[in-house]
Amino acid sequence: MGQVAGPLTVNGTEWHQHEWLPSLVKTSKTLNCIPESLTVIDWIPVDELAHIILDLVHTGYETHKSEIFNLVNPKVTDWSNLVPTIQIWFAVATKIVAVPFADWIDMLKHVDPNDKNEVASKPAVKIIDFYAALDSAGTASHSRQIFEIENGLRASKTMATLMPVNKESMETWLRQWNFNPRYQAILDCRNGFRSATTTLA
Question: How far is CA 131 from the centre of its chain?
Answer without folding.
Answer: 15
